[in-house]
Amino acid sequence: MEKKKQRISLLIIVVFMLLVCVGIVLTISDSSHNETIKETMKDAVLHDSNKVSLFGLADVDPSLISGFIVTGILLFIALLIRIFAIPRFTYVPGKFQLLIEAWVGLFDGLAKKNSAHRNRALGGYIFTAGTYIFVGTMFELFGMQAVTTKGHSISLPAPLANINGAMAMGCFSYLFILTGGIVANKVKGFFMSLKEFSLPISMTFRLFGALLSGMLTTELVYYYIKLSFVLPVVVGVLFTVIHAVIQAYVLTMLTSVYYGEVTEVSHKKKDKKKKKNKKAKADAPQIVGGN
Predict the structure, then answer these.
(1) What is the Cα–Cα distance from 245 to 222, expressed in whole angstroms?
(2) How much is the pLDDT for 11?
């Protein structure tokens, strides 16, 4: 019985490999590309060739269209959850409620762990940023098509695969840290945040570089027809999922760590608060019970 199962499994593997080989042979052709591999890779970095018309008003980068679509999807899903799901949440959670609570709890726990003070706003921000990075990166897997101004059909890239999108995310995260430092520690918090002036640059290129490397690898595999059967699926899914998880975690972790540092209450403030509490207790009227 076991030998029969092994033979069937081996036969399935052999048939699958033969189908893959046949598919590779059938997809080999001498069809010409619209652009060379050099132009393809250059446009993936600079985005100066393949533009998409934005309602006929302007020619924009495809990643901007991706950003609008991802933002609209997230807002629509959030609205549906708020209207239909949250009012039905129970003390004993179901599967969907557990999923939502786990996702929110992940970022809330990260905020509380790295910032003991003023972590409520931090939790909301890193939840939003992490969700946008994760969903925006995974959006590339759907292969949504758009037509360029030159008449070519292209798949919409991840919103943050463009240097401008990554720069906006890095700068906005730094401004959030800077604002938290000023609110918590005034002038001292401002200078503590200001000394990390390279933070938005490092965040930008870390995010952009990681997403771009995956996109370039996928573009390279797709360009050559001999490799365009089965392999792009594995490469595309592997790189996209890994980058979505890692980059969402890295940016939210860095933001929460630096935010926690600049919003930490100084020792002088802690001592003043302790003295104030002791004085309030000492001045409070003592109630003595009698028989």
Answers:
(1) 23
(2) 75
Residue with tokens 């292969």: 143
- The pTM of the full predicted model, rounded to 2 decimals, is 0.77
Secondary structure in 3-state letters for 132-151? HHHHHHHHHHHCCEEECCCC
In angstroms, rounded to a whole number, what is the distance separating the alpha carbons of residues 237 and 225?
18
Cα-trace Rg, the chain = 27
Q: Which of 144, 124, 159, 145 is closest to 244 using CA atoms?
A: 159
Residue 287's contacts (CB-CB under 8 Å, 6 or more residues apart) are none
Backbone angles phi, psi at 209, to 5 degrees: -65, -40
pLDDT surpasses 60 at 30: no
Please work out, in degrees rounded to the nearest 5, the angle formed at the alpha carbon of residue 253 by the alpha carbons of 186 and 267: 35
Asked whether 139 and 159 are in contact (CB, 8 A), the reply is yes
Distance from C-alpha of 207 to C-alpha of 229, rounded to nearest angstrom: 29
Domain ranges across the chain: 37-266
Closest CA to 204 of 233, 239, 168: 168
